[in-house]
Amino acid sequence: MVLSAADRFGDAEAVVDGSLRLTFAQLVDRIRCAAGAFAGIGLDKGDRVAIWAPNCAEWIIAAFGLLTAGGVLVPVNTRFQAAEAADIITRSGVKAVLVEKAFSVGISPFRPGCPRLT
Asked: Which residues form the signal peptide (predicted)?
């Protein structure tokens, strides 16, 4: 979907997030980079990945990167408390969790010893 939009509207603005402005072409470059990162951590097609973050450019890039890599998106509501997020994340059987730094305090209850990427 985004790839075909980039072919048609490459230099048109696709994402505006505060001062960040990305064209469709720039967005696709970042999505491909994210897809490569998912492959780099060993994500296989069909693996589930949770994203617990507010709507922002990074969320868009991560979500489309995940889908491009063949993963399955498990969005976690930003209004959830840590226990609610933990329940969704645990029951969905995710292989990885992408979390906004502000929410990362709530990560430890469901992934003890989970390595942190910054």
From this structure: none
